[in-house]
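User: Run a structure prediction on this.
Assistant: Running it now.
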Amino acid sequence: MINGRLDRALGLQRIHRLLLVSAPGHMRRCQLMLRTFMPPWYEYVWCPDHRSQGRRDNWWTNPIEEKRVLSELNKVIGGVKGRYFVDADIEI
């Protein structure tokens, strides 16, 4: 299998934990995609970046951030409906 050879060539089987840094609004889609496409043995450490705008407690106060968050929501819904990635409960 080509994937198995690539995994071994890159040493991916030795990786057990990944640090993921992203904008808070992208975390849900990121988690769903990782659950879909990455090996199940990986453990993830989630680290949303620190920003003054676009956080869970203020995204709606800035029209640009509100547009970004709603766009991200549509991507998550579209990804699940289109079965591009699994539908799962995600704790953020």
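Residues 63-81 form the longest helix (19 residues).
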